[in-house]
What we know:
The protein is α/β, with parallel strands linked by helices. The protein has helices spanning about 10-20, 55, 60-65, 125-135, 160-175, 200-210, 300-315, 355-370, and strands at about 5, 30-35, 35-40, 60, 70-75, 75-80, 85-90, 90-95, 100, 105, 140-145, 180-185, 215, 220-225, 230, 235, 240-245, 245-250, 265, 280, 285-290, 330-335, 340-345, 350.
Amino acid sequence: xxxxxxxxxxxxxxxxxxxxxxxxxxxxxxxxxxxxxxxxxxxxxxxxxxxxxxxxxxxxxxxxxxxxxxxxxxxxxxxxxxxxxxxxxxxxxxxxxxxxxxxxxxxxxxxxxxxxxxxxxxxxxxxxxxxxxxxxxxxxxxxxxxxxxxxxxxxxxxxxxxxxxxxxxxxxxxxxxxxxxxxxxxxxxxxxxxxxxxxxxxxxxxxxxxxxxxxxxxxxxxxxxxxxxxxxxxxxxxxxxxxxxxxxxxxxxxxxxxxxxxxxxxxxxxxxxxxxxxxxxxxxxxxxxxxxxxxxxxxxxxxxxxxxxxxxxxxxxxxxxxxxxxxxxxxxxxxxxxxxxxxxxxxxxxxxxxxxxxxxxxxxxxxxxxxxxxx
Length: 375
């Protein structure tokens, strides 16, 4: 029987599984990942205010794997060899007929002193650390910022940092403590969040001004110190630093024989195929794809790429040429805890609505709907 190996059990990997079965692919599917659970990363922003706990965001996948006839191989990937036909893991080698790389990206940690910052969006523990540190502070300055991958500027995930920034402002106001804190947003760009579109960027900066959030923009970062953010345009003294570095590809690509982009991601074409590799596909944040420079690194785009990869795999296994192409689409709600900003962008449209209270509840409703398929 044909064996399909999927590296990763995050958004892209799970969507690939669902779509393969929808397409009638009756192959053996093996998923390689350290844990058979999904952490719903978009809701980490709600851990500091107490709206979510680890139990809320960890979704066991044993039932999902059973329903879709998936074998889970527990382990971490160390290397991909033989043109993609062999995956070397910490618990043994796996051979395959089809490979899907859906392992996600990792954060660059090259900035000197990055250990002095809290890096959100990794796991629940990182969000809990922010919650606990905030509870310890009676006042002071909180600096929030993000950066990109210099070798691949589009490899950035800035949206959650806007959410943490506005969420902290709202939370401190609810606690009656906002006057004791200064919030500072920093970014190397003068227009942070450009992938959202100019209207969205203008709206977010205006919202910062309305909330009394100071900005430090357009200055390259130099280093982080225990209580300071140092940039070429000056330093920010801070009692707590939240910083999200740029993204790069998974560490196991070092020593693997898959082609890599300048930023360290797996190279892919518009059909999610890895060039010059037979039946090797990539979906989600692990890949570098052709398209506009605003192509997002987010779960929605990962799902679109995963569907494309699965449809093309189904076609190739049936003896048909791969022809499906993913659409580039950014869709998100920048949550503010007391509302949210809806942003949508594709090749024709770029919509950014002003903050609306209903959007916070819409984001919570989407979370429940999305996770229903995995619980």
